[in-house]
Write a structure and sequence with these properties.
Blueprint (H helix, E strand, L loop, with lengths): L3 H6 L4 H25 L1 E7 L4 H18 L5 E8 L3 H13 L9 H14 E5 L3 H17 L4 E8 L6 H11 L7 E7 L6 H12 L7 E4 L6 H12 L1 H5 L7 E9 L8 H26 L9 H14 L8 E6 L2 H8 L13 E6 L11 E6 L6 E8 L23 E8 L6 E5 L12 E3 L7 E2 L2 E2 L3 E6 L5 H10 L6 E2 L1 H18 L5 E3 L11 E4 L2 E4 L4 H4 L15 E5 L2 E6 L1 H23 L2 E5 L4 H12 L8 E5 L1 E3 L9 H8 L11 E2 L4 E2 L2 E2 L6 H12 L7 E5 L23 E5 L6 E5 L1 H4 L4 E6 L5 H9 L18 E7 H5 L1
Helix pairs in contact: 3-14, 8-15, 11-15, 12-15, 17-18
This protein binds 6-O-phosphono-beta-D-glucopyranose.
The site of 6-O-phosphono-beta-D-glucopyranose has 4 residues, from α11.
């Protein structure tokens, strides 16, 4: 068509033109063919009139159109919701009108592009199964009418999770594309409320979609700086190899502070709170990116996932004391108003949390990872800050220190995710560390900003890089869905691993009262917190505790450690914390004395829950303990493999052994697992243990045996009416427990009574009744094995907390 007039004007060159026309046609055909090959994509945005869609998702889809339409794909965008067609269309029209083009687009071109996008976008109500079927038919009809090939369908769920199952069922049954075309579903959090509900939801979704079809969105993984963490570690391997470990890292802070509050969202927030809303997902993802072992190929999503899962497995379990919680003062009132709660209603939902995480592996042991997020704080900023230990001693005075040379200035790497004083995403590396390498096509050095200080140092102290083109997280993730880049999304395994980690803490905090804070700059130092060992605590004590009002109840320090007699032996009683501290002190003193006299200390420990706090105390607070000369024995064991969480040895390992330095040849687990079976008589495990004791412990007399007392009067694994272990010659016996696991191995009473010292730890209200009973009975080990504990020539001491002793 275009060529024809030219033929007329230039008849002499007709041959050339014929050839040219032919080649243009071939090229055009190739183009058309390519276009056909690339095919048609339908994007269905569910919840298209909602907040997230209006703020980010439509813009992300527009960006997708701008990036990809020119490459031969054809698109249609179906905004869907439950709203009536008329209302929906109105909302969508407004949103489409407000879309923005990339900065360098001329206004006229922008208007043209927006117009094209609007032509391809529609609103439709999707409510019933028939609606979904009709949508599918429409897509098929369109594809056929336009002579296209269908490449795939993206369903983006921007809806509350209770709607997931119905929508998923409808898509699966009537909206899957035909053979040869793909289906991708993008899902927005929350993905459950705890491990169980997440598992349920995952199973449900798994019945409709294959794992490969699901894209669970964590929009923080789409933030440019977060997405840069692994590539940064990869591209700077050489410099970081020597730095990225407990030997050099002092602490890691993973922070997301917000100034907004939860107003308008309390129906969601009231159920979730800050830990579920932010820490369980965004901050945990970042934590794994920082902490994981670096895969050789960081762009392999499978390798990244496996390394992430490995990092999850190394996370030390959280306890109540690992977190501090706050709530901004206006929150309860917002909940009352928005959720029509009665006047007296007070919410316990935290809007602020700081959590201390430890990672028990060789790389990170002992390095605190601090996760913190909150609403109604003084500024909006998110970042990951890796602060290195200051291991240098500078001789010259500070005025001679040069930022890129002095090792005495702070050394840090900051992944500055956004906002804050800097106002844009950036990667900062202290000049005294190394000059980082970032891809120059997408990252550029930040221009100097005199006067700007970040993390205590002027910006000029850092090598600072920011993205050449700033992009919104959702636009990036939508593009990744389109390109099937799964490494920016949360797999089912990844999700469940995170919930396994967070659920016990959430359970233990369910009834915790958060500290109230006024919000904004007025928070002052109220939310500052400090950590030591495994615990976090607010730095400032609440005022009401500093000045006890009339009628306030007794606090632990109102009581002295009580010394008395129980069954004619010394009794020490106190509040649990003090009791544990006292017992730990006494054990250390005994250990020091034994090592001084005999060169070693033989300690036999029981399992169960009571000693855990003791193990933790010994692990964190007893630097003078002669661990190198201590032999650790078990007073009893459950017949399960040593790595089983039920194993007493496992409790010892988790709460004590991995934190102290006991030579491995001084650790003596009970041989309950021999020849791949558990506690078989023929394997003679009990005898083997007895022989080991006789060989190593002089006179088979332990320096200290720590025991507990069960509610039925059992001690170690010697239960009432036990046919073995209560008397006789045997030092170690196999016994039966009325509770699972039924089979046990235990030191016998005669062996226990040979000890130089026996300490019995009894804690909690549940022990009150048996404590009263045992105080009155005589020597009746058959009925109450604990009553048979009476060292032949050693000393017996009872350690009971007030709840067990006074009830
Ligand atoms: C969301 C949370 O996931 O992240 C919100 O649900 C929070 O409560 C938001 O405000 C913060 O995201 P950004 O991108 O603004 O840092």
């Amino acid at each position: 068509m275009v060529a024809e007039p030219s033929f007329k004007r230039y008849p002499r060159h007709a041959g050339v033109w014929k050839m040219l026309t032919a080649s243009v046609c071939v090229a055009l055909l190739a183009c058309l063919h390519a276009q056909e090959l690339r095919g048609h994509i339908s994007v269905i945005l569910l919840g298209a009139t909602g907040d997230l869609a209006r703020k980010y998702l439509w813009q992300g889809l527009f960006q997708l159109y701008l990036d990809e339409a020119g490459k031969g794909h054809s698109f249609r965008f179906h905004g869907a919701a439950l709203t009536t067609t008329e209302q929906g269309q109105e909302v969508i029209a407004k949103v489409l009108e407000s879309l923005s083009c990339p900065r360098d687009t001329a206004p006229a071109r922008c208007a043209e592009l927006k117009d094209q996008f609007q032509q391809l976008s529609e609103y439709r109500r999707l409510k019933t199964a028939e609606d979904y079927l009709a949508l599918s038919k429409d897509i098929e009809a369109w594809v056929q009418r336009e002579g296209l090939r269908e490449a795939g369908r993206v369903f983006y769920f921007s809806v509350p999770p209770f709607a997931y199952a119905d929508i998923a069922r409808n898509i699966n049954s009537s909206c899957r594309p035909g053979p040869g075309a793909w289906l991708r579903v993008a899902l927005e959090k929350p993905f459950g409320h705890d491990h169980r509900s997440a598992q349920q939801l995952a199973t449900e979704l798994g019945s409709f979609f294959q794992e490969d079809e699901m894209y669970r969105v964590d929009h923080y993984l789409g933030k440019q700086v977060v997405a840069q963490i692994l590539p940064f570690r990869d591209q700077n391997r050489e410099a970081l190899d020597g730095l990225w470990s407990r030997h050099h890292v002092d602490r890691v802070e993973i922070i997301m502070k917000e100034t907004v509050d939860a107003g308008g969202r309390t129906s969601f927030y009231e159920e979730y709170g800050v830990i579920r809303d932010v820490l369980q997902n965004h901050l945990t993802e970042i934590l794994t990116l920082v902490a994981m072992e670096l895969p050789r190929n960081v762009s392999s999503s499978e390798a990244v996932l496996q390394h992430k899962l490995q990092a999850f497995r190394a996370l030390r379990g959280l306890q109540k004391g690992s977190a501090v919680l706050g709530q901004y003062q206006a929150y309860s009132e917002q909940v009352r108003r928005e959720l029509q709660k009665p006047d007296g209603f007070h919410s316990l939902t935290p809007t602020f949390a700081g959590v201390l995480v430890h990672i028990d592996n060789l790389r990170w042991e002992g390095v605190p990872f601090i996760l913190m997020s909150g609403k109604a704080l003084d500024e909006r900023v998110s970042y990951v800050r890796i602060l290195f230990k200051n291991q240098a001693c500078c001789v010259q005075s500070e005025k001679h220190w040069v930022p890129d040379q002095s090792r005495c200035l702070p050394q840090q790497i900051v992944f500055y995710i956004g906002h804050g004083e800097l106002g844009s995403p950036a990667v900062l590396v202290s000049r005294n560390l190394f000059r980082p390498s970032l891809p120059s096509s997408s990252w550029q050095e930040v221009a100097g900003r005199p006067g700007l200080h970040l993390f205590g140092r002027p910006l000029s102290d850092y090598y600072a890089y920011s993205p050449v083109r700033e992009q919104d997280a959702y636009s990036i993730l939508i593009s990744h869905i389109f390109h099937h880049r799964k490494d920016s999304f949360i797999t089912t395994e990844n999700l469940l691993a995170s919930w396994v980690f967070w659920t016990p803490l959430l359970d233990s905090l369910a009834h915790e009262v958060p500290r109230l804070y006024p919000g904004g700059a007025e928070n002052g130092r109220l939310l500052d917190f400090e950590f030591s060992g495994n615990n976090l605590a607010f730095s400032q004590q609440p005022l009401e505790q500093l000045v006890p009002g009339p009628g306030s109840g007794p606090t632990p320090s109102d009581f002295q450690v009580l010394r008395a007699k129980y069954r004619e032996s010394p009794l020490i009683s106190a509040w649990p914390e003090e009791l544990i501290a006292k017992l730990a002190d006494d054990i250390e003193a005994t250990a020091v004395q034994a090592v001084r006299r005999f060169g070693k200390f033989h300690l036999a420990l029981s399992g169960g829950s009571s000693p855990i706090a003791l193990f933790q105390q010994l692990a964190t607070g007893h630097y003078g303990f002669p661990w190198a000369h201590t032999h650790l024995w078990l007073a009893d064991e459950r017949c399960v493999p040593l790595w089983d969480p039920e194993s007493n040895f496992q409790g010892l390992q988790v709460h004590l052994l991995q934190h102290v330095r006991v030579p491995y040849y001084n650790i003596h687990p009970m041989p309950v697992h021999l020849r791949q079976r558990l506690c078989a008589e023929e394997d003679r495990g009990a005898q083997v243990y007895a022989e080991e004791i006789s060989a190593l412990v002089a006179n088979s007399s332990f320096d200290l045996v720590l025991l507990g007392m069960g509610t039925d009067g059992h001690t170690a694994s010697l239960f009432p009416q036990s046919p073995t272990g209560l008397d006789g010659e045997q030092l170690v016996v196999l016994t039966k427990s009325p509770f699972r696991p039924y089979q046990r191995m235990s030191l016998s009473l005669p062996l226990i009574n040979r000890a130089r010292k026996v300490a019995v730890l009894v804690m909690g209200r549940m022990k009150r009744e048996i404590a009263v009973l045992v105080s009155r009975v005589g020597h009746e080990p058959r009925k109450w094995p604990i009553s048979g504990v009476l060292p032949d020539s050693g000393q017996l001491v009872w350690y009971m907390d007030y709840e067990a002793f006074l009830g």
